[in-house]
Design brief:
The protein is an alpha/beta fold and 392 residues long. It contains 16 helices and 17 strands. The strands form 4 sheets. Strands 9-10-8-7-6-5-4-1-11 form a 9-stranded mixed sheet, with helices on both faces. It has a 3-stranded antiparallel sheet with strand order 12-13-14. The chain is globular and about 55 Å long.
């Protein structure tokens, strides 16, 4: 792909939705499968210090270019954000609201661990403005929860959901994994039926993977083979469809109108500011797509937040890499994407997708309907192969 493709058009940030990701890095215990930037808690969380660091970080981000766009979503991820008090979450949201506009109906999500759930804390989060909770249930079988290193049991998970409902949350996401160590097809089905019975508005159903640099990678447990895992996936898709959950992304299922606004903005190649230890952000400025990453260690982050030294990595994404990043995200969605959207969000012309686009159409992995381009069922089944076709 030459420079000419990039020069024909430019990305227009005013038409690209903007979100905010806030990383809370501490957790009660590091799970053996987790490769996220999370740090087991030792002693007291420096809440006040971290809140101030987050706001300095946001000020630094906005100093480089004023931001007129309203936020369509905010997401507190981790780690375990539910280790923070309601007053700390309120302080963060108040500080953000003083610096950025909130779009009407903004979605504000906070991740919570059922093992750290507290009724009063949930009420405090709701009063602070959080309107969506995402809980990592992962299994409703105590044997499997123990194998996963989780600090909660099945009954604690059910209690946490009840607490969230009592606190006024009418938008819940529950995470569930399958292909767990020594899990059978029947056990996977029982897990999912149990989760569906809790009636979350949104459900993330995903395959346990043994990621590098985790305890499971160093000492791999015995997990179901690929054929068994695929059976679990097919069984799960059928159960979720029968229960009224539409699959709109590789591992995301939602009741009507309850798709995750924040994650949709990622997958549609929207912009997002990232603050907090190890947070990543993507922002379109002056027609260029810029990515920034913060320092991962909480201590280093708090010491440098708000200064140039607080940015560990910054780079402009262009050309073939930019086209690939767009496809890497949007091809996860069943809806696919529209060519005018590709041009608006990358600054590239449609020719930047060739010859890979023609090749995958011929292979039956993508379907084209006017300006819409969507993965076929075959393409969704072979998503990695489909995405890699667009690698420069």
């Amino acid at each position: 792909m030459g420079r000419g493709a990039l020069a024909e058009t430019s990305a227009i940030s005013t038409n690209i939705p903007l979100s905010l990701y806030i990383h809370i890095p501490w957790c009660a215990k590091k799970c053996p499968y987790c490769d996220f930037n999370s740090h087991p808690l030792r002693g007291q969380i420096p809440e006040a210090e971290y809140v101030q660091a987050l706001l300095r970080d946001l000020d630094f981000e906005l100093a480089s270019a004023a931001e007129a766009r309203p936020l369509v979503s905010i997401f507190f991820g981790g780690g375990t954000p539910s280790l923070f008090s309601g007053s700390a979450i309120a302080g963060i949201l108040d500080g953000v609201a003083r610096r950025l506009r909130f779009a009407p109906g903004i979605e504000i999500t906070l991740e919570a661990n059922p093992g750290t759930a507290e009724a009063q804390r949930f009420r405090d989060y709701r009063a602070a403005g959080v309107n969506r909770l995402s809980m990592g249930v992962q299994s409703l079988d105590d044997r499997h929860l123990k194998a996963l290193g989780r600090i909660h049991g099945a009954e604690e998970a059910r209690t946490a959901v009840a607490m969230a409902r009592a606190a006024g949350f009418d938008n819940l996401n529950l995470d569930l994994m399958f292909a767990l160590p020594e899990q059978t097809l029947a056990e996977a089905g029982a897990d999912l039926r149990g989760l569906i019975a809790l009636a979350p508005e949104h459900l993330s159903y995903y395959h346990l993977t043994l990621e590098p640099n985790t305890e499971f990678a160093a000492k791999p447990p015995k997990v179901p083979d690929s054929d068994s895992a695929y059976e679990m996936l097919e069984q799960g898709q059928a159960l979720l469809a029968a229960a009224g959950y539409a699959q709109y992304e590789t591992s995301a299922y939602a009741q009507p109108g309850r798709a995750a606004a924040h994650n949709l903005n990622y997958w549609r190649f929207g912009d997002y500011l990232g603050i907090g230890a190890g947070a990543h952000g993507k922002r379109t400025l002056d027609g260029r797509v810029l990515r920034r990453a913060r320092h991962k260690h909480p201590k280093t982050y708090m010491e440098t937040a708000g200064a140039v030294s607080g940015v560990q990595e910054e780079r402009a994404v262009a050309g073939g890499e930019l086209a690939f990043e767009y496809m890497l995200n949007t091809l996860r969605l069943h809806e696919g994407f529209q060519l005018p959207d590709f041009r608006a969000r990358t600054g590239l012309t449609a020719s930047a997708l060739e010859p890979a686009l023609s090749r995958v159409r011929q292979n039956g992995l993508l379907a084209v309907d006017g300006d819409w381009i969507r993965p076929t069922p075959l393409g969704r089944d072979h998503l990695n192969r489909l995405q890699l076709e667009f690698l420069p």
